[in-house]
Amino acid sequence: MNNKFYSLFCIISLVLTISSCKSDKKSDIPASPTTNNPVLDELNERINKNPKDHNALYKRAEIYYEKEAYDESIADLENAIKIDSLQPMYYHLLADNYLDYFKSRQALETMEKVSNLFPKRIETLLKLAEFQLILKRYEDAQLSVQRILQIQPQNAEAYLMGGMIFKDMGDEVRARAGLQKAIELGLLKDSDQIDAYINLGQLNIKKDKKLAEKYFDNAIKLDSTNINALHAKADFFQATNQLNQAIGLYRKIIGIDSAYSKAYFNTGILYMEMDSLDKAIKNFDIATKVEPTEASYYLYRGKAKEKQGKKLEAKQDYEQALKFDANLEEAKQALQKIK
What is the pTM of this model? Predict the structure, then answer.
């Protein structure tokens, strides 16, 4: 064979061998099939073409998180972080996944890691404090708030977080001071200001009912359709024995969100207090249809039926409650008593 052609043959063979090796090498991220979600399909296509597209991995993880597909979301975020470890929002979403997936230790470790990577990033420190509060690590949460205030002494969100921490600890004086300071600074976004007013209202129910109602009204003025604000004022009406007013607010909530099961449940409890058992049971019925696995809804429907003398139906409700929560002590006692 001519040396020239032999050399050319060797080069072609080498190229084909390298190409074959590349095509056989598997990516860490498996190719994804098409779905009925056009946004997800577009992201899958981007990732299939370029497995190193960390932004696409993050966006797909967001979709998986919303669908409560935590394993898939976590896998995408871990891959995204391997590619680019300096994107704080990747860690934030990863921590959210862990927390909602009942992996609180990993959630907190993730937030601690990202706060060490970005020690002066306010949003990250606030989220760290929030997680520490959720897990009742009060001293750590207070230290995180102090870190924020050292960086930004007039940060209203830090004072809001501080107030929430003290409220959870049962320190009402310092809780009120922190929440009032957050509002006085005038730098909170509406949703945070609503939270501040709601919490101040709750802290003042026993101390000053008129002031408490004013805080609830301020929250509702900011957003008349805010479920949390309306529910908080309904609770206030219930606590101050204004039962019809509370029912009226729950009806308003149902008009805004017919899937808000707590509105039906609380309405049922109010009707029980008013001895309107048929109306109470009707609302408990709806609550069980909206949220079929909530044990307390069956427990209270059983109580209402027992008051009507329908012991067999009450017994069935107590048993159903225990199917969804085997440790519900009140249902155990009610069932034992009725037997």
Answer: 0.81
